[in-house]
């Protein structure tokens, strides 16, 4: 069950960043090509409307940010000021870490609830009651987004959904910490990719010049 | 949330208690300064627990709004969405994605070969090549740690094998890597523009000349120290070898043309340029250099998304924090105070630098800019300081902050690559760091350095 | 004395712009005439809430008064306000004020009430000019031109109706986008064109007066209706005078801006002959047809009746 949630989270954010990139690339290509006076092609391109691309990209990234932040708790990517904590005696450090995790859970839980209330009042209430055929006379039909004209309450629901998920992740990390004393840690000093192109390639890079390799005696005179 | 870092001593209970007491006293004193004091004391206290900076910012705002104001708290939830609902901000994930494809994609390796063929035969040749490769890579990547990794992971072992002292290589690359945020594109510059509503394109242009100057300066220090230490030189490459190295790296170098050329020739906006560079970097990494197998692409996407999400989450919460600041009229009060005390441009800039350097001790650039820029910027504008000049000087200041302890991402990255401790690295970087500090003063007090190119191009 | 009633008036432009000046003028009148019982706090420059947030902030009661551009009401669900974006729907200020100061304008403001918003007045910004790097005179001149617009469905179809490519861009990036050529041209009231220095990066400015840009001053309904009756009446009087002031300042500002653009010599002013203007009007009538059902045929017809609009 938990594995599916983990996978879903990863698939969502991977898809969002990839798709947003493709959409913007298409929009740029479209704008550039429609400016060229190529008979036929120009007419066709002018008839295509890509005005929604920017807005959609923004919303995709906001959703990516909210769910990615939850994923980030699990993978320990959120940066904090650890100057003090890391120097505290172990037992004190444990208490501080638990406090910090609870702070995270508290904040995301609160924001989730505030966000849910906002989404509800900002159009969800109306939409739900309207759907159920109930009286909506006193309710506000929420706004829509300017270009795509989607109801903003659906777009904004990234805030409560993402925050509750993040809250859950904080609690999960807290429980794991109590059990094992380990925290997920993203090593900002480690960037994937250097294992593959790292030290091995560096020797290769050098070997290309091995033949010119400096001979100490020539140093005095230079190799110019 | 953290675990121990190499080279840091752990306090005894007694020492820890003393430290905590001192901190408590200082924070208590700050809190007596009125509502502003409470805000900052609370923020500092929360941050010191090691919780994510974004959460500390958000909790501070919530606490304050709950207890001290009548702002409807749903407004906070709304701000969490609208805070990043801006196309300009989207440049950040795009540049991160492009950078990840480049570091995975063998672009750095070929840039190094090219740089080495050009300057390898001078005193400290490999070191100079390292500086040049950092500058080249900086022109395609928006982040400093990424530049250190991309160039350093190849260059540092090569330098050690060629007979350079380990410290020398670490010092050069750690500091040169910081060019990543000064030479455009630059993620902290985008963050600054978003926080102050300035033009990204103009600021990017403003970073070019200072970036080239700083690269030359760092190279000069390396050359001078190499000459003194009589460090090895490479054999001069033939023009044929240079041409080959250039041809091999041309695909990577062309990205510079795409990003900067694309923006300044009007092909795209800075955000669109970021997206195009991500697409381009993907194509060369996967199809041209083939250093990234297709099945690894989702992993690159996921890592970029996660890194972007972390930054965007700090940004949203920092937007909340600056909303609280405005609500409490703090930037206005600060501006009035500075103008009222006739604190001229010179002393204001000095205060700005000191404040930023202090912040650079404990935070990374984007957070510092997001928290401090909205407060300092209005004052700078009232004093008639150019937004581009102000942005460049903040960026240079951030570069310095990344290279010194206790918090300095470049140092951490370099330590990861060289397996050197933070304290040893700190000693290693000092000649270059000193040069950077001098350069920072130059940029601070000689605005034309940052303004000449943007002005020449008509901004 | 009891604590004064605080009205937070938030807007997204600088203090020295016509809207900024009018907001400050309203503040002055309101505080004088209520003898300090009302305190108006003006927050210019999106200090508190940005363009996209202010409307929701007003509905939540986080601010009490706003003056958003009329285009902002369509996303709120009151698409009828897009009628103001229709090209050439007003030929001049007389026709415009017949609507904004007449029954149709009042009827439109009434439509905001179910959203928890009361509309108090319309403030002019002015009529728009069209700028580009080539003289835009005939319709064919527009073909393939990339034109920056504000986010709006009607403006989008206006630009498409003459064969150009509309592009939505953030205001802070417009100058650079024009300079580098990401977009070729844009439409603005002269005051915006001049203060954003766009005339420096545009070779030609066509004095087309083809569209209108305006604001509505709105308040939180609950807040306004909860005010003591005498205070509300006084404030409504203040708003009336502030509106007169706002429209005068806007007109003067636009005239001065146009003179300044001309004097700068950085871009050339292009006038349209009556035939050319008629051709624009006819071509852009497509934007009316395409958006008729969207905006609501009733309201468009009512405006037509008030202004005597005729595309041919
Ligand atoms: Na860079
Ligand atoms: Na630092």
Automatic annotation (TrEMBL), chain A:
The keyword Transferase does not apply. It is a multi-pass membrane protein. Residues 46-172 form the Tripartite ATP-independent periplasmic transporters DctQ component domain. It is found in: Cell inner membrane. Keywords: Cell inner membrane, Cell membrane, Membrane, Transmembrane, Transmembrane helix, Transport. InterPro entries: DctQ, TRAP_DctQ. The chain crosses the membrane at residues 12-32, 44-65, 97-120, 153-178. It holds the Pfam family DctQ. Belongs to the TRAP transporter small permease family. This is TRAP transporter small permease.
From TrEMBL, chain B:
Its main location: membrane. The keyword Cell membrane applies. It is found in: Cell inner membrane. It comes from the Bacteria. Pfam families: DctM (PF06808). It is a multi-pass membrane protein. The keyword Zinc does not apply. The chain crosses the membrane at residues 20-45, 51-68, 89-107, 127-156, 168-187, 199-224, 245-267, 273-289, 301-325, 337-359, 366-385, 429-453. Keywords: Cell inner membrane, Cell membrane, Membrane, Transmembrane, Transmembrane helix. Residues 40-447 form the TRAP C4-dicarboxylate transport system permease DctM subunit domain. NCBIfam families: dctM. This is TRAP transporter large permease subunit. The lineage of its organism: Bacteria, Pseudomonadati, Thermodesulfobacteriota, Desulfuromonadia, Geobacterales.
């Amino acid at each position: 069950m938990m594995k599916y949630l983990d996978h879903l989270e990863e698939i969502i954010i991977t898809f969002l960043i990839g798709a947003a990139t493709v959409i913007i690339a298409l929009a740029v290509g479209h704008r550039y090509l429609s400016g060229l006076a190529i008979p036929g092609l120009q007419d066709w391109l002018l008839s295509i409307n890509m005005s929604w691309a920017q807005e959609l990209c923004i919303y995709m990234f906001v959703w990516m940010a909210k769910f990615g932040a939850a994923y980030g708790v699990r993978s320990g990517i959120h940066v904090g000021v650890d100057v003090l904590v890391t120097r505290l005696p172990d037992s004190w450090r444990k208490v501080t870490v638990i406090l910090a995790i609870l702070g995270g859970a508290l904040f995301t839980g609160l924001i989730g609830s505030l966000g849910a209330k906002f989404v509800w009042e900002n159009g969800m209430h109306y939409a739900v009651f309207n759907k159920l055929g109930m009286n909506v006379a006193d309710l506000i039909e929420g706004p829509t987004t300017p270009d795509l004209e989607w109801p903003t309450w659906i777009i904004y629901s990234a805030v409560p959904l993402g925050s509750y998920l993040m809250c859950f992740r904080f609690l999960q990390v807290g429980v794991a910490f109590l059990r094992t004393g380990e925290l997920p840690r993203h090593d900002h000093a480690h960037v994937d990719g250097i294992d593959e192109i790292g030290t091995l390639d560096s020797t290769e890079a050098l070997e290309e010049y091995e033949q010119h390799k400096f001979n100490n005696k020539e140093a005095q005179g230079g190799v110019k | 949330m953290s675990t121990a870092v190499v080279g840091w001593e752990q306090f005894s209970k007694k020492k820890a208690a003393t430290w905590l007491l001192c901190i408590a006293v200082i924070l208590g004193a700050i809190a007596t300064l009125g509502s502003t004091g409470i805000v900052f004391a609370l923020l500092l206290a929360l941050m010191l627990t090691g919780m994510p900076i974004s959460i500390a910012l958000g909790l501070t705002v919530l606490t304050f709004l709950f207890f001290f104001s009548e702002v409807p708290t749903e407004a906070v939830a709304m701000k969490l969405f609208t805070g990043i609902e801006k196309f300009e901000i989207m440049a950040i994930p795009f540049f991160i994605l492009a950078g990840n494809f480049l570091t995975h994609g063998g672009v750095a390796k070929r840039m190094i070969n090219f740089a080495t063929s050009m300057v390898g035969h001078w005193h400290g040749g490999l070191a100079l090549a390292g500086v040049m490769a950092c500058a080249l890579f900086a022109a395609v990547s928006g982040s400093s740690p990424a530049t250190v990794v991309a160039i350093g992971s190849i260059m540092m072992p090569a330098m050690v094998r060629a007979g350079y002292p380990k410290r020398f290589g670490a010092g050069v690359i750690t500091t040169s890597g910081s060019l990543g945020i000064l030479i455009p594109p630059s993620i902290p510059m985008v963050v600054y523009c978003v926080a102050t509503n300035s033009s990204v394109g103009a600021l990017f242009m403003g970073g070019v000349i200072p970036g080239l100057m700083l690269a030359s300066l760092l190279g000069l220090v390396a050359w001078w120290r190499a000459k003194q230490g009589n460090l090895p030189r490479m054999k001069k490459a033939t023009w044929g070898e240079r041409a080959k190295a250039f041809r091999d790296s041309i695909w990577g170098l062309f990205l510079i043309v795409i990003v900067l050329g694309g923006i300044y020739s009007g092909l795209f906006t800075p955000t669109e340029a970021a997206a195009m560079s991500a697409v381009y970097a993907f194509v060369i990494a996967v199809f041209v250099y083939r250093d990234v197998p297709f099945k690894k692409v989702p992993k690159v996407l996921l890592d970029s998304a996660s890194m972007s999400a972390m930054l965007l989450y700090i940004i949203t919460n920092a937007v909340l924090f600056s909303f609280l600041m405005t609500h409490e009229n703090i930037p206005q009060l600060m501006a009035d105070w500075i103008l009222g005390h006739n604190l001229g441009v010179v002393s204001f800039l000095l205060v700005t630098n000191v404040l930023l350097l202090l912040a650079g001790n404990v935070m990374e650039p984007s957070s510092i800019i997001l928290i401090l820029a909205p407060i300092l910027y209005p004052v700078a504008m009232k004093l008639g300081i150019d937004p581009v000049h102000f942005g460049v000087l903040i960026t240079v200041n951030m570069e310095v902050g990344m290279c010194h302890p206790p918090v300095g991402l470049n140092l951490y990255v370099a330590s990861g690559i060289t397996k050197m401790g933070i304290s040893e690295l700190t000693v290693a970087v000092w000649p270059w760091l000193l040069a950077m500090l001098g350069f920072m003063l130059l940029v601070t007090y000689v605005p034309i350095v940052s303004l000449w190119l943007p002005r020449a191009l008509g901004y | 004395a009891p604590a004064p009633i605080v009205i937070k008036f938030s807007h997204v432009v600088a203090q020295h712009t016509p809207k900024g000046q009018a907001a400050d003028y309203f503040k002055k009148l309101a505080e004088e005439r209520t003898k300090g019982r009302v305190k108006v706090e003006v927050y210019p420059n999106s200090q508190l809430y940005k363009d996209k947030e202010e409307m929701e902030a007003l509905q939540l009661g986080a601010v009490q008064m706003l003056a958003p551009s009329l285009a902002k009401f369509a996303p709120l669900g009151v698409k009828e306000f897009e009628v103001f974006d229709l090209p050439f729907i007003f030929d001049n200020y007389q026709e415009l004020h017949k609507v904004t100061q007449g029954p149709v304008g009042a009827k439109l403001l009434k439509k905001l009430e179910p959203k928890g918003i009361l509309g108090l007045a319309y403030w002019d910004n002015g009529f728009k000019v069209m700028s580009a790097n080539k003289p835009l005179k005939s319709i064919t001149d527009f073909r393939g031109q990339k034109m920056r617009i504000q986010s709006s469905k009607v403006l989008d179809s206006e630009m498409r109706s003459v064969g150009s490519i509309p592009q939505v861009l953030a205001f802070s990036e417009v100058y650079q986008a024009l300079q580098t050529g990401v977009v070729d041209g844009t439409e603005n009231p002269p005051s915006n064109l001049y203060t954003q220095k766009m005339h420096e990066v545009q070779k030609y400015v066509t004095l087309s007066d083809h569209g209108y840009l305006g604001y509505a001053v709105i308040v939180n309904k609950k807040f306004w209706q909860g005010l003591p009756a005498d205070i509300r009446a006084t404030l409504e009087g203040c708003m009336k005078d502030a509106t007169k002031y706002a429209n005068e300042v806007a007109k003067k500002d636009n005239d001065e801006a146009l003179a300044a653009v001309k004097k700068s010599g950085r871009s050339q002013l292009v006038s349209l002959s009556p035939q050319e203007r008629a051709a624009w009007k006819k071509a852009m009538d497509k934007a009316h047809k395409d958006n008729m059902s969207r905006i609501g045929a009733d309201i468009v017809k009512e405006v037509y009746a008030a202004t005597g609009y005729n595309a041919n």
